[in-house]
């Protein structure tokens, strides 16, 4: 998972001259931005509940308080809307991790950040359900979210592999550590725990389980300095 800081918020309008408008009635770019956010939020909820294929654009329009024509003005297709939903999900993850540190995580810190992300996800049930439902559908190569899913897992594995490679370079991990294998297993554990947690949230503590696994990995591969 990337730890680059995203550009957050929207740019201020180029023309800052006060306009003769009633307060609380944004128009133009600001109003369109708020409408898009409302649409994306509604789509995310419906995709999480029903899946991508079973969610019609008409349902998203109704949930957004728009006509279908109004919805299509902002998103030309359901595929475009899915892309916006997934982009928002990734942005929230990056923002959550970026807020923890002034500089990108390095070495074992990358794994510590993943544990923290799992802890945050336990408070974002809708987001976890969205990912799990879409992941189940997107293993199909024809699904519009397939490339995103492959990229999502590749970025996560690459980030965790890099963390262990840096730990070796910093002298905090055994040079023989199988970095890529551990990274891949870590991602698989997080995905599997999300599914178990959705089925029985009262029985599964995702963050505790991931932290316990990380402790086992550290016991085996961290040096005294780590």
Automatic annotation (TrEMBL):
<dbReference type="GO" id="GO:0003700">
    <property type="term" value="F:DNA-binding transcription factor activity"/>
</dbReference>
<dbReference type="InterPro" id="IPR009057">
    <property type="entry name" value="Homeodomain-like_sf"/>
</dbReference>
<feature type="region of interest" description="Disordered">
    <location>
        <begin position="1"/>
        <end position="35"/>
    </location>
</feature>
<keyword id="KW-0804">Transcription</keyword>
<dbReference type="InterPro" id="IPR050109">
    <property type="entry name" value="HTH-type_TetR-like_transc_reg"/>
</dbReference>
<feature type="DNA-binding region" description="H-T-H motif">
    <location>
        <begin position="56"/>
        <end position="75"/>
    </location>
</feature>
<protein>
    <submittedName>
        <fullName>TetR/AcrR family transcriptional regulator</fullName>
    </submittedName>
</protein>
<keyword id="KW-0805">Transcription regulation</keyword>
<dbReference type="InterPro" id="IPR036271">
    <property type="entry name" value="Tet_transcr_reg_TetR-rel_C_sf"/>
</dbReference>
<dbReference type="Pfam" id="PF00440">
    <property type="entry name" value="TetR_N"/>
</dbReference>
<dbReference type="GO" id="GO:0000976">
    <property type="term" value="F:transcription cis-regulatory region binding"/>
</dbReference>
<keyword id="KW-0238">DNA-binding</keyword>
<dbReference type="InterPro" id="IPR001647">
    <property type="entry name" value="HTH_TetR"/>
</dbReference>
<feature type="domain" description="HTH tetR-type">
    <location>
        <begin position="33"/>
        <end position="93"/>
    </location>
</feature>
């Amino acid at each position: 998972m990337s730890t680059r800081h995203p550009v957050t918020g929207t740019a201020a309008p180029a023309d800052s001259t006060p306009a003769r408008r009633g307060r609380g009635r944004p128009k133009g770019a600001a109003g369109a931005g708020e409408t898009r956010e409302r649409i994306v939020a509604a789509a995310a909820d419906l995709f999480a509940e029903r899946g991508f294929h079973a969610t019609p654009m008409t349902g998203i329009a109704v949930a957004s308080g728009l006509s279908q024509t109004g919805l299509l003005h902002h998103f030309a297709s359901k595929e475009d809307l899915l892309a916006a939903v997934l982009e928002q999900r990734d942005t929230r993850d990056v923002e959550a991790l970026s807020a923890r540190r002034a500089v990108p995580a390095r070495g074992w810190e990358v794994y510590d950040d993943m544990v923290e992300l799992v802890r945050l996800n336990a408070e974002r049930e809708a987001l976890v359900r969205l990912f799990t439902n879409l992941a189940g559908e997107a293993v199909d190569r024809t699904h519009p979210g397939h490339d995103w899913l492959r990229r999502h897992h590749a970025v996560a594995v690459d980030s965790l592999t890099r963390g262990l490679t840096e730990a070796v370079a910093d002298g905090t991990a055994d040079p023989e550590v199988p970095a890529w294998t551990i990274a891949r297993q870590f991602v698989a554990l997080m995905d599997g725990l999300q599914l178990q947690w959705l089925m029985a949230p009262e029985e599964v503590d995702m963050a505790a389980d991931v932290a316990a696994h990380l402790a086992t990995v550290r016991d085996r591969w961290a040096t005294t300095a780590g």
